[in-house]
Amino acid sequence: MKWTKFRIKTTTEAEDIIISSLYDIGFEGAQIEDKIPLTALEKEQMFVDILPDGPADDGIAYLSFFVEQKEDGSLEVNGEPMEVAAIVAAVENELKCIRDWMDIGEGTITVDETEDIDWINNWKQYFHQFYIDDILVIPSWEDIKPEDSEKMVLHIDPGTAFGTGMHETTQLCIRQLRKYITPETVLLDVGTGSGILAILSLMFGAKHCVGTDLDPCAVEAVADNCKNNNIDVKDFEMMIGNIISDKEIQDRVGYEKYDIVVANILADVLVPLTPVIVNQMKKGGIYITSGIIDDKEQTVVDAVKAAGLEVLEVTYQGEWVSVTSTKR
């Protein structure tokens, strides 16, 4: 399937107005490229693998709109046939109207052609099998080498939205999980994403896992990865919602029932999460946190102690930190 891409160079302040105006003439959805820092809410909704800090905001934004090409190469907007030149003219007219009362920057338009494969499959070229200590992590499009036939193998197809396990924070959690999991472990994975930590916990011998995430796409990602690793669906329960603020999710997850809680999330989310999650933990339960850049270590340690937990261990990999604590 091919698409014609219309890309507008504008300002960050004009993003929403332009998107709204073009929606009114038949464009649905936009790809936004800018350097605006993430808001607190956006950070709460991001679960690792964690992105590094981006460059400073320069006020410039690129908005891309896509029109599907028919088999004969023709285009339609709002169900009506339109030539590329006519679409550009319509967009230019909308931009001219907006420019009359606000600064939209250059307001230039470029036209290009793209295909679904650009969005769906190109990322696969960057994800290849790798090792986490003695664990082989491998995607479905690669084969296990003969010399790895006896290793523990984690089959992961993370998709474009979730982590692969390559990030240091994920690996810190995995090593801590191996230390504490027993055959009786009931585990809660907050921000489960593609399900890597919970799936590995079951492979390490945990009895049952519950995962929570804000992104509904996690349900399909977890289901696929469970199937690829022969995990019984009854052993891994997924819930979508914000456990920090949603009482219904807290109730569904349950109280004082988890031997281990693992949260591989940004430090700014761990701070409000910790006093909530302590209620889900059994007495003697283990709380494994990561996603903590080194200058946030003390912030998380303080939050853990303030919630009444006792710090057992702080571990490091690169510039990242994992804090493991217990509920006495």
Overview of the molecule:
The chain is of the alpha/beta class. The chain has two domains: 2-120, Alpha-Beta Plaits (2-Layer Sandwich), CATH 3.30.70; 163-326, Rossmann fold (3-Layer(aba) Sandwich), CATH 3.40.50. The chain is 30% helix and 30% strand. It is built from ten helices and 16 strands. It has helices spanning 15-24, 40-44, 84-99, 116-120, 168-180, 196-203, 217-228, 247-253, 267-277, 297-306, and strands spanning 2-11, 31-33, 60-68, 75-77, 80-82, 108-115, 130-132, 135-138, 152-155, 186-190, 208-213, 236-240, 258-264, 281-293, 310-317, 320-326. The strands form four sheets. The protein has a seven-stranded mixed sheet with strand order 12-11-10-13-14-16-15, with helices on both faces. It has a four-stranded antiparallel sheet with strand order 2-3-1-6. Strands 7-8-9 form a three-stranded mixed sheet, with helices on one face. Strand 4 (75-77) and strand 5 (80-82) form a beta hairpin. Helix 1 crosses helix 3 (84-99) and helix 9 packs parallel to helix 10 (297-306). The radius of gyration is 23 Å and the shape is elongated.
List descriptors.
10 helices; 4-stranded antiparallel beta sheet; 16 strands; 328 residues; 30% strand; 2 domains; 7-stranded mixed beta sheet; Alpha-Beta Plaits; elongated; Rossmann fold; alpha/beta
SSE topology:
Elements: E1 2-11, H1 15-24, E2 31-33, H2 40-44, E3 60-68, E4 75-77, E5 80-82, H3 84-99, E6 108-115, H4 116-120, E7 130-132, E8 135-138, E9 152-155, H5 168-180, E10 186-190, H6 196-203, E11 208-213, H7 217-228, E12 236-240, H8 247-253, E13 258-264, H9 267-277, E14 281-293, H10 297-306, E15 310-317, E16 320-326
Parallel strand pairs: 8-9, 10-11, 10-13, 11-12, 13-14
Antiparallel strand pairs: 1-3, 1-6, 2-3, 4-5, 7-8, 14-16, 15-16
